Amino acid sequence: MPGKPEGPAGPAAPETTVSVTGWGRTAPTAARLIRPRTYQEAANAIRSCGARGGIARGLGRAYGDAAQNAGGAVLDMTGLDRIHAIDADGGTLLCDAGVSLHRLMEVLLPLGWFVPVTPGTRQVTVGGAIGADIHGKNHHVSGSFSRHVLSFELLTADGQVRTVSRGTPLFDATAGGMGLTGVILTATVRLLPVETSYMRVDTERATDLDDLMARLTATDHRYRYSVAWIDLLARGAATGRAVLTRGDHAPLEALGKATRAGRAPLAFRPRTLPAAPGFVPDGLLGRATVGLFNELWYRKAPRARVGQLQRIATFFHPLDGVPHWNRVYGRAGFVQYQFVVGHGQEAALRRIVGRIAEHRCPSFLAVLKRFGDADPGWLSFPVPGWTLALDIPAALPGLAGFLDELDEEVAGAGGRVYLAKDARLRPELLAAMYPRLDDFRSLRAELDPRGVFVSDLSRRLGL
Ligand SMILES: Cc1cc2nc3c(=O)[nH]c(=O)nc-3n(C[C@H](O)[C@H](O)[C@H](O)COP(=O)(O)OP(=O)(O)OC[C@H]3O[C@@H](n4cnc5c(N)ncnc54)[C@H](O)[C@@H]3O)c2cc1C
């Protein structure tokens, strides 16, 4: 591959010292931000990153401290964003790890292909998608991102580049390994064929948590994509009321030839609204405002509607339409809390949802989903069961202690929290949540004995 590192020589990548945060904007730390333009520059940066080590960063959409490294180097990989090859017959892609899923959609959709898994934003890189082994609304059918990765090239601590194929320990340590095994330079990914850039979506309301779980359990298998927005401020009989949106890629015949959609069935035209204001008064997203929003959101949703056509961007990435929406939480930022508990742990889920509702967490971005089979990544998050993700303003009084209590409850139910969202988990719970942690640590100790790859997350949790 052109530009593959050969030795220590070569130019240095541009670098600046900046304050780095995750998407939640909590816990900023200063680091040398290095932006390699070639694989050689990436290798040079790793070889010379110094005692505080280095970590790869994509588009910084991890909510917590996974892609930051206080006093060390952070490699901004978005300068390496080429698409090298698309096999339009076989449906595979070879690209740099710094390319975003947004860019891939722009290029692939007109060719009739889609990314195999997309999270709730398309502003993530392929490297970040593998590093966190991200999941999407199709996890119950398609598993997580790494299931669709055939191989990748990994720059390791010794400055070498290894080709890593699926089914090997290094693959399984890297998929979900939060950048701690090395820097992914390129990846070969299997794609999903689609006939249109539209989704056919069914919407329904659930009156409470039990109703929601029953609907998801009974009918999720009919849909490739499934998720439920859940009102975590509703209490009493309405606790856990929700709006389910489920669907699949619309076939050509669903569009109608004479319509705008039918004339350009594979067009990708995401809409963008004005950016969220740079300054929002702290406390704006208090219980009263969010409670009102949730009430309106629930009531405006149809009780049952089938077959609505939606653009891909509307269905998967509504928040991407508002640039910098994370500013609405004010100066203190916000915490995303996402956990999973296995099937059979419905009582634990009920208790946790009840506690969140009683605690009156002002959360308007809360979703519940059923995960399917796990993938082999040692620190990969999804396991079969129920996952709940919610945003909470970081300034909420008593939040740290409350989330510590929820962690205990999650760990007690054999569940885990998602490292890509985390900014505050206590390290002593990690081994119970991630049983392959020792394998991960052993492989890292062998592959990276000097501890070159390090992040604020890895220091905090002793990964
Ligand atoms: C609005 C929103 C919705 C989201 N929805 C979901 C969702 O539905 N499902 C889900 O799973 N996640 C979701 N996320 C989280 C997001 O998908 C992950 O955090 C993802 O890893 C971010 O990718 P990134 O390119 O921004 O990586 P960053 O945030 O920059 O980094 C994330 C991790 O990947 C590592 N990494 C990045 N690039 C490389 C590389 N080249 N080589 C090695 N390691 C690398 C970093 O070291 C870090 O540990 C969401 C985030 C947002 C903001």
TrEMBL record:
Q: Where are the transmembrane segments?
A: none
UniProt keywords, alphabetically: Oxidoreductase
- Pfam families (alphabetical): ALO (PF04030), FAD_binding_4 (PF01565)
Which chain positions lie within coiled-coil regions? none
Question: What superkingdom heads the lineage?
Answer: Bacteria
Sorted alphabetically, the Gene Ontology cellular component annotations on this record are: membrane
State if Oxidoreductase is listed as a keyword.
Answer: yes
Molecular function terms from GO: D-arabinono-1,4-lactone oxidase activity; FAD binding
Q: Does the keyword Oxidoreductase apply?
A: yes
Domain FAD-binding PCMH-type residues, every copy: 26-194
* InterPro entries for this protein: ALO_C (IPR007173), FAD-bd_PCMH (IPR016166), FAD-bd_PCMH-like_sf (IPR036318), FAD-bd_PCMH_sub2 (IPR016169), FAD_lactone_oxidase-like (IPR010031), Oxid_FAD_bind_N (IPR006094), Vanillyl_alc_oxidase_C-sub2 (IPR016171)
Name of the protein this chain belongs to: Oxidoreductase
Source species, please? Streptomyces fuscichromogenes
